[in-house]
Amino acid sequence: MNRGSRKTEIDVLVSEVGPRDGLQSVDRTMPTAVKQRWITALAGSGLREIEVGSFVSPKRLPQLADTADVVAHALTIPDLTVLALVPNLVGARNAVAAGTRALTMPLSASRAHSQNNIGMTPEQALEQVGLVCELKAATPGLSVEVGISTAFGCTLEGPVDEDWVIELAVRAAGRGADSVGLSDTTGYANPAQVRRLFTRLRAELGDRAGGAHLHNTRGQGLANVVAALDAGVTTFDSSQGGLGGCPYAPGASGNIVTEDLVFLLESMGLRTGVDIEALVAARTIIGDGLPGEQLYGHVPDAGLTKGFQYAKVD
Amino acid sequence: MNRGSRKTEIDVLVSEVGPRDGLQSVDRTMPTAVKQRWITALAGSGLREIEVGSFVSPKRLPQLADTADVVAHALTIPDLTVLALVPNLVGARNAVAAGTRALTMPLSASRAHSQNNIGMTPEQALEQVGLVCELKAATPGLSVEVGISTAFGCTLEGPVDEDWVIELAVRAAGRGADSVGLSDTTGYANPAQVRRLFTRLRAELGDRAGGAHLHNTRGQGLANVVAALDAGVTTFDSSQGGLGGCPYAPGASGNIVTEDLVFLLESMGLRTGVDIEALVAARTIIGDGLPGEQLYGHVPDAGLTKGFQYAKVD
């Protein structure tokens, strides 16, 4: 059964980041045609949003140098939100020129991480958010989301001040961001903190409070999802096979695994629109493009439970 | 720092089941002296309760045939609750004769699993609970806890009726059990279900509602811990290195990992009394006794977060 084709309503948006966050962390390049086939399969499993690449210098991330071609293909897939990461105005202009209409920008709360990751201070990155949001006036349908990186702690700086995280989020919204989410870039978050910060974020930003980008570095990823759900979060980033992490944060690896996340949500009665078996089948395409690449996830090994039922449409 | 030696109060009791649940799932036997050294190291890390073995037929579980010797050693460790599993009255008598004063009995909600696991119907197993509880009259200090196995689903039967699970728990308490917990023997639980069932259990049994025994078969273990905490659960079983599962439930493997559980709880501000680095160091002893045995866990690989702080004593 391909649930994606059924145009069901969903309760939670699972935003697949494997083709961007996953592939940028691998030290070899997946051929463009394989990326395109993988994205088609991911969308075919029912995923509604895929972050397909980054508009950054090909010298910095040669693995994503073909992002414009990947975007062009992804835009042909019906009912798919094609998201691309842009670090600054230059990247955003390239993304828009390639047809992208959904941009995501990182804004790191940790000064050391911000410098390492995008070579800017948080204030400089905020400036870029403002400039990118100005593109919206001339580009119908353009949306800009911001993700506050290292929102829960940083491998370089340790604990990150929560008031500062919320302040940055508010400032990013003030610069015109359509939504602002929080990212556990380095696998530091715990459920109490996730609940606290997302509750504050929603109190400050209302409908413009964005999703959760959580990592599984210390095995806490899905525990943090439960806490975020309690705080009202309805968008979660994840990566097929847990591919990727953040190459500029030492020791940080392990996006939460899309397969296990979808199982969690559907088991809890939250509709994702994703067919787990079709999703698991798409894993083989990663192996076609990156032979022998290590993939993670428990559900692909254990399978669905006997008598498993997807969340019901009301 | 050995936090265990500091006699701190704790918020959550982590009950280590590796020496019983872990070792019974391995198809070779850890030498008795290594088991004893491992238990000493686990207790030394601050763990307050360890399930050290089973009083069952050595033909059935030769890996645990030395349980009496292991109990005798564990009883010499100060401030440690030495728990042993007994399936029936015969096992309980042997356990008491060996000096054990804390017994745990499995009572499976799934008829098929009950038959496979302990060769009895649930009703027959309840009968044994009653007989074992009668031993308390003549054995000062004896406590009997019951764990409802397959409380969240069964690899053989699929979904398990929730009313029946609660009914069994109430009946076990009626037979004299000091506490009745719920076990996700086969890795079927989801957080919504965990919250629902433990909330009902506590409503029915009050202070005699027991702990959660959760598995990580589908990667949902710590997510379920968060839900159980929300429902007021304060005792969790886990296994060092995720060793073990249930050999009589096909496809069921993977206790939650003690190292990752303790990190979760302490990060959330919940005191366990356990020193994570001392706990991680104890992993090497498993390798001494079972060379090459696969261990799980993220925290042992990723290490503590920079600036990590244990939950504070008020």
Q: Your description of this structure?
A:
Chains A, B: One of its GO terms (molecular function) is hydroxymethylglutaryl-CoA lyase activity. Chains A, B: Belongs to the HMG-CoA lyase family. Chains A, B: Residues 12-280 form the Pyruvate carboxyltransferase domain. Chains A, B: This is Hydroxymethylglutaryl-CoA lyase. The structure is a homodimer of 314-residue chains. Chain A is of the alpha/beta class and 314 residues long. Chain A has one domain (11-294): Aldolase class I (TIM Barrel, Alpha-Beta Barrel). Chain A is 39% helix and 14% strand. In chain A, helix 9 links the parallel strand 7 (209-213) and strand 8 (235-238). The first copy, chain A, is globular and about 50 Å long. At the A-B interface, helix 8, helix 9 and helix 10 of A face helix 8, helix 9 and helix 10 of B.
Which features characterize this protein?
homodimer; about 325 residues; alpha/beta; TIM Barrel; about 40% helix; hydroxymethylglutaryl-CoA lyase activity (chains A, B)
Question: What's a concise summary of this model?
Answer:
Chain A is an alpha/beta fold and 314 residues long. The first copy, chain A, has helices at residues 18-24, 32-44, 67-74, 89-97, 111-118, 122-134, 162-174, 191-205, 221-230, 258-267, 276-281, 283-289, 299-302; strands at 13-16, 49-54, 81-85, 102-108, 143-149, 179-183, 209-213, 235-238. The first copy, chain A, has one domain: TIM Barrel (Alpha-Beta Barrel), CATH 3.20.20.70.
